[in-house]
C-alpha cells in the first residue's frame, strides 16, 4: 500500500514538473518565434537577426534612434555602373531548324537564328510594345555565384522586354561576372554596390540592401518611370508565367513564394479576389510580412515616392520598403490566379567551403592539357583553390589506375 501511494505521489509530482517544463517551453517558443526570421535573403547567411533583434526589441527604440540606425534616405550613396548594354542580343537557344552554318553561338552552341526572331531584338529605350520588367538581382562573390547567375540568366533569356540589373556586393567591378552576363544577350546593367563596412561588421548583416538601393538609384537616375520593378535573388527559381503575371502591375502585385519559412510558403491571403491578410511563419510585427520575391511594383507608382528606399535592417527590408512607398492593402493586386499558384521558389543553394587542390608540379605544364584552363577558370570564380603544399592531392585515373599528374610530362 505504502509503496503504491508513494509511486502515485511520484507520478503526480513528475507530472507537475513536466507541466512546468511545458509552460516554460511554450513561453520560450512564442517569445522566440517573434525574434528570428525564417531565413535570409541569401543562402549561407546565418539565421538572421537573432542577437540584433533581441537587442532592438529590449531597447524599445525611439523613432529617431531607429531612423538614425536604419536610415531610409539616400545619403552619400554613389552609383557605380560597371558595365551595361541596353540592347537585346538574345538568340533563342532551342530552335534548331535553321540551316547549318559554321558560326557557333558561344553560349548555346546552337546556330545563329536571330534573323528568324526579329521581335526579341529590341532596345531598352526603344518603343517597347510591352512594359519593361526591371529585374533586380543582388549578388555577392562566393563559390556558387557564377553557377547561380548562369541558371538565372538562362531563365531570363526566355523573357522579352526585360532589363536585368545585377548588383554585386563588391568594391570593384567583377570581370568574371561580366564575362558571363554579356553572354546571355539580355539587356543588363552591372553595378558594384558594396555593403557599407558598418553593417558588414554586424552579426546579422543586412545582405542585398546596398545592392537593391543601388538598383533603385539607377532606376531614378535614368528616369525610368514606366515598367515594373521586381527583386529576384540569384538563388530563386522563377516559373516563366510569373513574368507575364507581373508585367502589367498597376501599383503593387503580390503572389505566393514557395519554400519560405516554417510554413514552406509565404503568401497573401485572398478572399473574393482581394488581399485581406498574409500567411507567413515570421510575423515579427511586420505590416507587410512578405518575401522579397513575393511582390512587384510599377515604376509609375514608385515614382510617386521619390524617397522610397530600403533600410539596412535584416529581416525588415520588404516591410520598410513597402511602407516607404505608402502601400495600402486595397492597392495590392493578387496575381498567380488569386494567389493559388506558386510561380517563384526560394530554392537556395547549399553552400560549402571551396576545397583546396594540391598540385605540387609546375602548373604551367598543365596548360598543355585541358586541366590548366579548367582549374584556372574555377579558381577565378572562387570555386576552388590550388595550392602547392596543402589540400587534396590532384591525381589522374588512366585505364582504371590512379596516376600522378606528372604521368603526362615524364
Ligand atoms: C552590346 O552588346 C553587343 C553584342 O555583344 C555589342 O555588339 C554592342 O557593341 C554592345 N553595345 C554596347 C553599347 O556596349
Ligand atoms: C479572382 O477572384 C475573383 C473573385 O472571386 C474573380 O472575380 C476573379 O476572376 C479571380 N481572378 C482570377 C485570375 O481567377
Ligand atoms: C524627400 O526627402 C527630402 C529630404 O529629406 C524632403 O525634403 C522631401 O520633402 C521628401 N519628399 C517626399 C515626397 O517625401
UniProtKB/TrEMBL annotation:
One of its GO terms (biological process) is chondroitin sulfate proteoglycan biosynthetic process. It is an enzyme of class 2 (transferase). InterPro entries: Glyco_trans_43, Nucleotide-diphossugar_trans. It is found in: Golgi apparatus membrane. It catalyses: 3-O-(beta-D-galactosyl-(1->3)-beta-D-galactosyl-(1->4)-beta-D-xylosyl)-L-seryl-[protein] + UDP-alpha-D-glucuronate = 3-O-(beta-D-GlcA-(1->3)-beta-D-Gal-(1->3)-beta-D-Gal-(1->4)-beta-D-Xyl)-L-seryl-[protein] + UDP + H(+). Keywords: Glycoprotein, Golgi apparatus, Manganese, Membrane, Metal-binding, Signal-anchor, Transferase, Transmembrane, Transmembrane helix. It is a single-pass type II membrane protein. Mn(2+) binds at residue 235. Pathway: Protein modification; protein glycosylation. Its cofactor is Mn(2+). Its EC number is 2.4.1.135. GO terms for molecular function: galactosylgalactosylxylosylprotein 3-beta-glucuronosyltransferase activity; metal ion binding. One of its GO terms (cellular component) is Golgi membrane. The keyword Cell inner membrane does not apply. Its main location: Golgi. It holds the Pfam family Glyco_transf_43. The chain crosses the membrane at residues 12-31. Glycans are attached at residue 338. The active site is at residue 318. Belongs to the glycosyltransferase 43 family. This is Galactosylgalactosylxylosylprotein 3-beta-glucuronosyltransferase. It comes from Anopheles darlingi.
Amino acid at each position: 500500500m505504502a509503496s503504491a501511494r508513494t509511486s502515485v505521489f511520484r507520478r503526480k509530482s513528475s507530472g507537475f514538473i513536466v507541466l512546468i517544463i511545458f509552460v516554460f517551453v511554450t513561453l520560450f517558443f512564442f517569445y522566440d518565434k517573434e525574434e528570428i526570421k525564417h531565413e535570409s535573403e541569401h543562402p549561407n547567411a546565418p539565421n538572421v537577426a537573432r542577437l540584433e533583434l533581441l537587442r532592438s526589441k529590449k531597447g524599445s527604440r525611439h523613432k529617431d534612434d531607429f531612423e538614425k540606425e536604419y536610415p531610409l534616405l539616400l545619403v552619400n550613396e554613389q552609383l557605380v555602373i560597371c558595365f551595361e548594354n541596353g540592347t537585346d542580343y538574345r538568340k533563342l537557344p532551342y530552335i534548331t531548324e535553321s540551316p547549318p552554318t559554321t558560326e557557333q553561338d558561344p553560349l548555346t552552341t546552337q546556330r545563329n537564328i536571330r534573323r528568324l526572331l526579329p521581335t526579341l531584338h529590341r532596345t531598352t529605350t526603344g518603343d517597347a510594345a510591352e512594359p519593361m520588367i526591371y529585374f533586380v538581382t543582388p549578388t555577392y562573390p562566393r563559390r556558387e555565384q557564377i553557377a547561380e547567375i548562369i541558371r538565372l540568366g538562362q531563365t531570363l533569356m526566355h523573357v522579352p522586354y526585360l532589363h536585368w540589373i545585377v548588383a554585386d556586393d563588391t568594391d570593384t567591378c567583377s570581370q568574371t561576372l561580366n564575362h558571363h552576363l554579356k553572354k546571355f544577350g539580355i539587356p543588363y546593367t552591372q553595378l558594384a554596390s558594396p555593403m557599407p563596412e558598418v553593417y558588414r561588421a554586424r552579426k546579422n548583416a543586412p545582405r542585398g540592401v546596398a545592392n537593391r538601393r543601388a538598383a533603385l538609384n539607377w532606376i531614378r537616375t535614368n528616369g525610368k518611370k514606366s515598367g515594373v520593378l521586381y527583386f529576384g535573388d540569384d538563388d530563386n527559381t522563377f516559373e516563366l508565367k510569373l513574368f507575364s503575371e507581373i508585367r502589367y502591375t498597376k501599383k503593387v502585385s503580390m503572389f505566393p513564394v514557395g519554400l519560405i519559412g516554417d510554413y514552406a510558403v509565404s503568401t497573401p491571403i485572398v478572399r473574393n479576389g482581394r488581399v485581406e491578410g498574409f500567411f507567413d511563419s515570421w510575423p515579427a510585427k511586420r505590416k507587410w510580412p512578405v518575401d522579397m520575391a513575393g511582390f512587384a511594383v510599377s515604376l509609375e507608382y514608385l515614382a510617386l515616392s521619390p524617397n522610397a528606399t530600403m533600410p539596412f535592417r535584416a529581416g525588415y527590408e520588404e516591410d520598410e520598403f513597402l511602407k516607404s512607398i505608402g502601400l495600402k492593402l486595397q492597392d495590392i493586386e493578387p496575381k498567380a490566379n488569386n494567389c493559388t499558384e506558386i510561380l517563384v521558389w526560394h530554392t537556395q543553394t547549399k553552400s560549402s567551403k571551396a576545397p583546396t587542390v594540391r598540385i605540387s608540379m609546375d602548373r604551367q605544364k598543365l596548360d598543355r592539357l585541358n586541366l590548366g584552363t579548367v582549374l584556372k577558370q574555377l579558381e577565378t570564380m572562387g570555386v576552388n583553390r590550388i595550392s602547392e603544399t596543402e589540400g587534396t592531392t590532384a591525381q589522374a585515373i588512366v585505364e582504371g589506375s590512379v596516376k600522378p599528374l606528372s604521368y603526362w610530362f615524364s
